[in-house]
Design goal:
Order of helices and strands of chain A: HHHEEHEEHEEHEEHHHEHEHEEHEH
Largest sheet of chain B: 8 strands, mixed
Strand order of the largest sheet of chain B: 17-16-18-19-27-26-25-22
Oligomer: heterodimer
Helix content of chain A: 25-40%
Largest sheet of chain A: 6 strands, mixed
Structural class of chain B: alpha+beta
Number of strands of chain A: 13
Shape of chain A: elongated
Shape of chain B: elongated
């Protein structure tokens, strides 16, 4: 609990000053957990170092030229002083004389001004659904979602982008913005501490969870990666939430997590089907025909989700929890133009 | 297949129901947590209790579970099957002695024994081995091999006349068992126990079981024990018949006795005779003149061995007048004295030279050639004594070593009233057997007394020098000469043998003889090495051997009579319990059950295998 408090957005410096030796002890406990928790090579039990090495060349693909402020690796929508040369143009009165290319004047005899492209950082928010429905499946959907989020966080931080992590559970918790690859352990620890539980209405909580982004200038658009099972009924309400985010300048990416047994339940006979979040239950006689009808219904719902995303230009990717993470990142998400 | 604990089979019916009930209840309580229930709504909801009681669908897992519990229940019932017994070797010993023809067991003891032996063979399987031994006068291995072979041989088995060599048969059976140590051996002896005590071998290769085949009253037998004829020594020529009857019953027996003239069939006497219990009685009967053959019959019912109730007897002819005998000799005192001692012989003695020169001699009914054989034999019967080394009749060589009798036909008329065992030759002759003559007395050097027919005449050869034997100084010699002269002159007593005893008849090679049995059956026998051997003499009565080419020509006639008290005594006398080696019955009572092989381990293994298979299916499919 204390560990979670430490990483809920408070500046590291403030913690260091206030906690003192307590912070040191907590760091030691976290390090011990990393060493013994889920085997060597795991970062906070979330991400394997081998995966990290495989994805270190990846970067997020923003939906438009970014404007998150200088310092990033992404092309700016405006020309700005930088070392990235683009072209020459004829000097016009008013131009900054510091940009004159005297060597070109020596060769051409006319004044030429060097133009450069601005590089800006991308504001990235990774929203992780930690509702009770994410705690199901074999393998566990939340565990897989943590890994996906951790990998995307690593991709974000290693390109100097600003990262914000939001966990949607009973009490929405957030971390960031973080910047710089040295903050990756902090981000992973945050994700590792995410616990499933509670009932979450994604369509309602999603706009509120990203309320802090609303305070940013409209010109600074953010890339919001929502990692969830998106099980909302009706699905159009999720579209409304996407619309609300988009109005605040969010470039939404929907990453759906699904487990194999969710797609193909192999239970038979009389079954009491219980909603993991609401506790609502219904009696169902599971037969091959019943399962087939369920699968058809699920496929229709997925089609609706894809339709909602497509109508809003929201990039969409579906991830089965039995899919190896490197394959997902290097193949599936590339195909969906989420990373490159 | 049987079950040692069949009550457990009820579990085989109950447990599948229990499994189904468990699945039913488990299915009702099974919960499936899903991310969102709206995807499941209205699929096929069970809203009432009736839906809850629906049987679970028959899945592979459920099927495997049911089969597994049924197998386990079957294992609890302890199924077992009988152990295949090891192959057995059954040796059947059938007593084929005379007493086995007793009819106190219908149709006879022997037939009963054969029937019981057949049942024993029927109990054998194809993998078993069976041997059949006939215990007659000698023990004979009749068949060995498959039960079918023994069964076939059993059908052809016939009883003999004579004792049963049971000791030898049991020893032979044990030897047979020893040859097949891999088989479980068993000896079964079928006998009536009517014989002398026997001692079974000390060590046998298998247990011996005696099966008694006698009836409830095996002592009810009477027999003709002895029949003799004689000429009354008063010079009248009258003849008498002496008959001795024996009773082996514990009660006196009253039996009618008839005496019939065989040739005419006329009954010449009849008696009602009371024979004391376990005793004998005798009859003496004057035989009318002209009767040559008699049949004595012990009539009446209740006799269990008809074999000894009939006797045939030949009567000596009353020699009417004299027999003219010519003795050709250079001087053999003992022979001449023996001939002259016969009152009915008119003897003429001529020397060899006279014979060789062909000097006229008086006609003779019989010629005695002493130490010579002329090139041309005189007509009529011949008695050849001491044949010379060179002659055309038979090959003779000097045999310097003293000779004794090695075998003799004591029943032959030539040896009647003679104890030939004391016969000894200081210097004998080595004589080759003749194809046309029957050997009556034999020494290690060859035949010493022969009898046969040559060119239609009867010939008797005494192939030794009476002067070189002790015989001429004993009473046996004149008796032998008497018998020979009487036989050659046609006045001797006919041949009588015991049942089963073979009789040889001289028949030239390439020709056949016809044997007419007492029951009228005719058997053709081919001559081998100059003689025909009549072996089937089991039926008492008169046998006639005819020349097959000329049935009017009688080669030999002989009678078969049992006349053996030992064989007629059909009472069980053997203490079979003393030598019975049947496995004690107590062993069976201690373990009355047939050895069984239990199969529960196999069923448990199969059930575990199915459960393992079910687990694999369960894991591969995930939770079902």
């Amino acid at each position: 609990m204390l560990d979670r408090l430490i990483h809920r957005g408070e500046p590291r410096g403030a913690l260091d000053a206030s906690a003192g030796t307590l912070f040191g002890r907590l760091r030691s406990r976290l390090a011990a957990r990393r060493r013994g928790g889920r085997g060597s090579g795991n970062l906070a039990g979330v991400l394997d170092e081998r995966v990290l090495r495989q994805i270190e060349r990846l970067s997020l693909v923003p939906g438009w030229p970014v404007s998150g402020g200088l310092g990033g690796d992404h092309r700016s929508r405006t020309q700005a002083p930088s070392i990235d040369f683009i072209d020459h143009r004829t000097y016009a009165p008013g131009d900054d004389l510091r940009h004159l290319d005297w060597r070109a004047y020596g060769r051409l005899g006319s004044l030429q001004v060097r133009t450069t492209e601005g590089r800006e950082r991308l504001d990235v928010a990774i929203v992780l659904d930690c509702s009770a429905s994410m705690a199901l499946g074999q393998p566990d959907k939340l565990d897989y979602a943590r890994q996906v989020a951790g990998a995307l966080a690593a991709v974000t931080l290693q390109h100097g982008d600003a990262l914000r992590l939001v966990c949607l559970d009973r009490a929405t918790s957030a971390l960031g913005p973080l910047s710089g690859r040295q903050r990756l352990p902090t981000a992973l620890e945050f994700l590792g501490d995410a616990q499933p539980g509670g009932r979450i209405a994604l369509d309602q909580i999603l706009p509120d969870a990203l309320a802090p982004m609303a305070s940013a200038p409209r010109s600074r658009r953010s890339m919001v990666l929502v990692i969830s099972d998106f099980l909302t009924d009706p699905i159009d309400r999720l579209g409304d939430a996407f619309d609300a985010l988009a109005r605040r300048g969010a470039d939404i990416v929907a990453i759906r997590i699904v487990s194999p047994d969710e797609e193909s339940p192999n239970a038979t006979g009389q079954v009491e089907v219980i909603d993991a979040e609401t506790g609502e239950s219904i009696e169902v006689m599971l037969t091959p025909d019943t399962v087939a009808r369920y699968q058809a219904r699920l496929a229709g719902w997925v089609a609706d989700l894809e339709r909602v995303c497509a109508q809003r230009g929201t990039r969409y990717a579906s991830c089965r929890t039995d899919r190896p993470l490197p394959s997902l990142l290097l193949e599936d998400l590339r195909r969906s133009r989420i990373v490159h | 297949m049987s079950f040692l604990f069949p009550l457990a089979l009820a579990l085989a019916a109950i447990l599948p129901i229990v499994v189904l009930a468990v699945h039913l209840l488990r299915g009702a309580n099974r919960r499936l947590r899903v991310p969102a229930v709206f995807l499941w709504a209205d699929l096929e909801q069970s809203t009432g209790g009736q839906e809850r009681r629906r049987w679970p669908p028959l899945t592979l897992l459920l099927l495997l579970q049911i089969i597994a519990v049924v197998l386990l229940a079957a294992a609890l019932a302890r199924p077992a099957s009988p152990v295949d017994p090891p192959p057995t070797h059954l040796v059947l010993v059938i007593d084929a002695s005379t007493s086995m023809q007793a009819t106190d067991v219908r149709p006879s003891r022997f037939a009963s024994a054969v029937g019981q032996a057949r049942e024993q063979l029927d109990d054998l399987s194809l993998t078993d081995t069976a041997s059949l031994i006939r215990a007659g006068a000698t023990a004979t291995l009749v068949a060995t091999g498959s039960p079918q072979q023994a069964r076939s041989a059993l059908e052809d088995l016939r009883p003999e006349i004579g004792p049963a060599a049971l000791e030898h048969a049991i020893a032979l059976a044990s030897a047979r068992l020893a040859e097949t140590p891999e088989l479980e051996g068993r000896i079964v002896v079928f006998t009536d126990g009517a014989g002398p005590e026997i001692e079974a071998p000390a060590t046998l290769a298998g247990p011996v079981e005696f099966v008694t085949v006698s009836g409830n009253n095996p002592r009810a037998n009477q027999s003709i024990a002895r029949v003799e004829t004689r000429t009354v020594p008063d010079g009248s020529g009258a003849r008498q018949l002496f008959v001795e009857l024996a009773n082996f019953d514990s009660e006196p027996a009253q039996r009618p006795v008839t005496v019939v003239a065989t040739e005419s069939g006329e009954e010449i006497a009849g008696f009602d005779v009371t024979i004391p219990e376990r005793g004998t009685t005798s009859l003496v009967l004057d035989v009318p003149a002209g009767v040559r053959q008699l049949t004595v019959h012990l009539a009446g019912d209740g006799d269990i061995l008809p074999l000894d109730d009939t006797a045939e007897v030949d009567l000596p002819d009353v020699i009417a007048g004299t027999v003219r005998v010519t003795l050709v000799s250079n001087g053999s005192g003992s022979l001449e004295r023996a001939l002259r001692a016969l009152p009915w012989v008119e003897l003429a003695v001529i020397d060899v030279a006279e014979m060789e020169t062909g000097a006229a001699t008086a006609p003779a009914d019989l010629t005695v050639l002493d130490g010579m054989i002329p090139d041309e034999l005189p007509p009529g019967p011949l008695l050849v004594v001491n044949p010379p080394a060179t002659n055309h009749l038979l090959r003779v060589e000097d045999y310097p070593t003293p000779l004794t009798v090695s075998s003799s036909d004591a029943e032959h008329p030539l040896l009647q009233e003679i104890d030939i065992r004391s016969f000894r030759l200081e210097r004998g002759l080595a004589v080759e057997p003749l194809a046309w003559a029957r050997t009556v007395v034999e020494t290690p050097a060859g035949p010493a007394v022969l009898e046969g027919r040559l060119d239609g005449r009867s010939v008797v050869i005494l192939a030794f020098d009476p002067a070189q034997s002790r015989l001429d100084r004993s009473i046996a010699f004149p008796l032998l000469v008497h018998n020979a002269v009487a036989h050659l002159a046609g006045t001797g007593v006919g041949l009588a043998v015991a049942p089963g005893q073979p009789v040889e008849v001289a028949v030239p090679d390439g020709r056949s003889a016809l044997v007419v049995a007492p029951d009228g059956n005719r058997t053709r026998l081919r001559s081998d090495a100059g003689r025909v051997r009549v072996t089937d003499t089991t039926l008492p009565g008169r046998y006639t051997v005819l020349d097959a080419a000329n049935e009017q020509h009688v080669l030999l006639a002989f009678s078969v009579n049992l006349l053996d008290v030992e064989e007629s005594d059909v009472r069980p006398r053997l203490e079979l319990e003393r030598i019975d080696r049947t496995p004690p019955a107590g062993d069976e009572t201690e373990s009355p059950l047939t050895p069984l092989v239990e199969h529960w381990r196999l069923l448990v293994a199969a059930a575990l295998l199915l459960l393992g298979l079910e687990w694999i299916v369960y894991v591969r499919r995930g939770h079902g």
